[in-house]
Design a protein that fits this description.
Strand order of the largest sheet: 5-13-12-11-10-6-9
Distance between the termini: 38 Å
Strand content: 15-25%
Bound molecules: pyridoxal-5'-phosphate
């Protein structure tokens, strides 16, 4: 406090009252545009910030700063908060940036169903009530070889529904090595508890044997469950039983064998070498009765929870009351159906996630070259093309770094973190990496229409 008085109390008394502020000239246009309730809420938030600033920093009240920050917040209310950003991180399925991008053709399907009425739950042949699941079940079965299929809001919902409907008040055996927390707060022990199933952990974090499962089975057991460990990997001395052995053990004991496959790999697409991702088909072939997966990870579709497997179990899920609470909305369903159709006809290159995943390194390099040539001529900064590591993201293929190319940009007066902050504050924010106090633009995840905006944004930052 270095002896400076007056203390907070006096400074705080300088802050105008709400009624006074509402009568200011500059407020009137905002009152007209946004209405009194919203304007008051914004001003209240600003007032508490000012008070906080006085208490913490002994800062004097500045009417002009207050006016400017109010106007900034009020103007913000006229713009959408959820908006497009440029992903220059090289992480394809970036959980914080919306995971998978939706293909153009799926956007068309979504738009038709969103702006017009549809046969969502209408049987056009008989003129009677239909099932929303009917639009996708056949496709899901054809693509995975399953007897039956169902979809809910997301994979967390798919796991919850399956456990509730099939294992409530019974025991479910899971390997300790698979009890992971997945980014975005998905924890199997929590979901299990919520479902009313009792989790029985077997084995150790790095090794679980078939006899560990065997010993855990008793008359209360209903299910053996396998979970994709996502972005969690233990290297070295590890082991877990083969799927086939697990499913045989389950079936010999009259139990259900369920797998949470995570990423939802549908086709045998060429994956980066060393990948341990397996397809949904392979899970089913190995004997899983139920397999659940996300729609917006490696499948490259909308947020959805796919459930495929034996008809007798899927039928139970469909009728379970929780299914109604987790149902998929029509726009998402339209999107999912179109993506499944792209898989059916093998048009994988129309699915952005798969396209970015399978990008040829020479194509990435020429994309980087093109961008670096433009930036070198336009920016008053040091521009270099560099090799980078990209990532699949979304908990898929965590063991794999994808070789990529990027542009590193440095400036003696602008720190990388400062530039990153400026780039995040733009109308179309740019999210990029940094290395050795230079920002790094990974080109793999740049979309065609990102290029011009990105160049203009960087000019704004470095040439200002
Ligand atoms: C991502 C993931 C989930 C959660 O899926 P959402 O679709 O995000 O709900 C569950 N289990 C595994 C193994 C995952 O990888």
């Amino acid at each position: 406090m270095n002896g400076r008085q007056p203390a907070d109390g006096l400074l705080i008394r300088e802050i105008p009252a709400m009624n006074e502020i509402l009568n200011y000239d500059w407020i009137s246009t905002w009152l007209e545009k946004l209405g009194r309730t919203h304007v008051k809420r914004v001003i209240n938030a600003e007032l508490s910030r000012v008070r906080q600033n006085i208490i913490e920093n002994d800062a004097a009240f500045s009417p002009e700063n207050f006016r400017l920050s109010c106007i900034k917040s009020l103007a913000g209310a006229l713009r959408n908060s959820l908006k497009r950003v440029i992903n220059a991180t090289g992480v394809i399925i970036h959980t914080n940036l919306g995971r998978s991008l939706i293909s153009e053709s799926a956007v068309k399907s979504m738009s038709l169903v969103a702006t017009g009425y549809s046969n969502l739950e209408y049987d056009l042949e008989n003129g009677t009530r239909g099932q929303r699941n009917a639009h996708i079940e056949g496709l899901m079965c054809s693509l995975t070889g399953a007897e039956a299929a169902f979809a809910v809001n997301n994979n967390a919902g798919a796991v919850l529904l399956s456990l509730c409907a099939l294992s409530k008040n019974t025991e479910v055996v899971v390997s300790r090595g698979e009890l992971v927390e997945i980014g975005g707060s998905f924890r199997i022990p929590d979901i299990m508890e919520l479902s009313g199933a009792k989790l029985v952990e077997v084995g150790t974090t790095n090794r679980t044997h078939l006899h560990d499962y065997e010993r855990a089975i008793n008359e209360r057991t209903s299910m053996l469950m396998k979970i994709h460990p996502s972005n969690f990997r233990i290297e070295g001395f590890t082991s877990s039983p083969e799927r086939k052995a697990l499913s045989r053990l389950a079936h010999d004991n009259g139990l259900i064998f369920m797998e949470d496959a995570g990423s939802g790999l549908l086709a045998d697409i060429k994956l980066p070498s060393k990948s341990s991702e397996i397809t949904i088909n392979a899970c089913l072939e190995a004997g899983a009765d139920i397999v659940t997966f996300s729609g917006d990870k490696m499948l490259g579709g909308p947020q959805i929870g796919g459930i495929v497997g034996k008809k007798k179990y899927i039928d139970v899920l469909k009728k379970y009351p929780l299914a109604r609470a987790l149902r998929v909305d029509k726009v998402t369903l339209a999107c999912f159906e179109e993506i499944l159709r792209l898989y059916m006809v093998g048009e994988y290159d129309k699915i952005p996630t798969l396209r970015m995943l399978n990008m040829n390194i020479d194509d990435i390099k020429s994309k980087a070259l093109e961008l670096s040539e433009i930036l070198k001529t336009k920016l008053k900064a040091e521009v270099n093309m560099i090799e980078v590591s990209d990532a699949v993201g979304g908990g898929s293929c965590p063991e794999i770094d994808l070789d990529g190319w990027g542009i590193s940009i440095g400036h003696k007066n602008l720190s990388a973190s400062y530039v990153q902050k400026l780039l995040r504050s733009l109308d179309v924010p740019v999210i990029c990496g940094a290395c050795e106090d230079r920002i790094v633009i990974h080109v793999r995840t740049l979309q065609d229409n990102d290029f011009d905006i990105l160049v203009k944004s960087l000019e704004g930052v470095y040439n200002a």
